[in-house]
Amino acid sequence: MTVPYALLGLLEREPSHGYDLKRDYDAYFGRGKPLPFGQVYATLARLARDGKVIAGEAEPGAGPDRKRYVITEQGATEVEMWLAEPVEPEPHQQTLLFVKVVLALMLGRDAEKYLDTQRAAHLQRMRELTEVRRVGGVVDSLLADHGLFHLEADLRWIDLTVARLSALAREVRP
Amino acid sequence: MSALVEARDVHLSFGPTPALRGATLEVAQGEILAVMGPSGSGKSTLLHCLAGILVPDAGEVHFSGRRIDVLGEADRSALRRDQFGFVFQFGQLVPELTAAENVALPLLLGGERRATALVRARAWFERLALAGLEERRSGELSGGEQQRIALARGLVGQPEVLFADEPTGSLDSLTGERVMDLLTAAAREHGITVVLVTHEPRVAAYADREVIVRDGKVTSPASLVGAR
Q: A-contacting residues of B 162-201, CB under 8 Å?
């Protein structure tokens, strides 16, 4: 579910062609897993259908990659909300947290505030799992421990990222 | 719930180095609060100000509706002895004393008779799974045992507030969790308010709530709808 938001975020930065969006997505978020062109255009078509972007007229030399896409007010509001809300705490979500942080910095949003909100959501989940461990048997306790260790790893990453936000901002801001 | 312990816009510098720059915090009666933050953020200094160990350069510290930062050293010392309990990262037991004498220490310093103090101290050994270790000296105890003795010493006077500064910092994770299980269970059973400084999320997860100290200020996390 990250791709539509990432593309919307990149469009909020500046109106772009599909090709440029794919190039920026791959550079910042793809990292060894480039976005297929088909997925870029399918996603843009859905976003246009839902009123979140507007596709310009096809430019000379026609073909899907010749359209320029512009974010709408509705699309921008959606990006705003998505960037601020914490991700459901669960293991293996570092990529999603990373996309949110980079996009927030790119768009001049408060990435530190988002990370604080995310930290609070993680700690709340850790409190729940600590309670499961306290009242449960060995099986429950070990399952809860598995979750606790993964959430703790996320939290260490969050702290490290907070400490390096300025350096990351310098790298991703145009 | 009204605040039992409160810091209002507290500032404190060590020489030219500011440690606290306007820290504000409220801890409710019976609450277990985790104070988190990176190394050097001022979290331990804040705990020392709340506990009347350090006196802020500016701002106010209140305990139970009374302003304590304006009290003299003798009054603050009495307050610490009678109302507060402490647990630090390294148990800091007195090596010449037995475990039971270490636990009884705050009572003895408060003028309680030796025999009564030792009876009260011994009652904590069973509760903290330390039975049989009463006559040992600190050199004959494991790290986890020493830390549980230190916890018993912090709780023996039935304090209003227990101040714990990285109480599991010197322990492996399993032993640390045992200490935290016992600490939180005892605090809840006796209605003791706990201010817990830690940089470990797993330890903070035992608390009811956490705050983050950053650059000498307290940041409360955004409230999460439906989260608590």
A: 181, 201
By percentage, how much of chain A surpasses pLDDT 70?
Answer: 94
Average pLDDT, chain A: 89
Chain A residue with CA closest to B211: the answer is A120
Give the start-to-end residue ranges of the domains of chain A.
Answer: 1-84, 87-174
Quote ipTM for the complex.
0.79
Residue at token pair 């509706």: B65
The residues that bridge with B7 in the sheet, in sequence order, are: B25, B61
pLDDT above 70: residue B225: no
Task: Write down the residue that tokens 């719930």 correspond to.
Answer: B1
pTM exceeds 0.90, yes or no: no
Partners of A163 on chain B (C-beta within 8 Å) are 38
Whether A121 sits inside 8 A of B224 (CB atoms) is yes
For domain B3-89+139-219, give the fold: Rossmann fold (3.40.50)
The CATH architecture one would assign to domain A1-84 is: Orthogonal Bundle (1.10)
Is A120 close to B224, i.e. CB distance below 8 A? yes
Q: Strand A68-71 relative to strand B17-28: parallel, antiparallel, unpaired?
A: unpaired
State both tokens at B22.
Answer: 């306007």
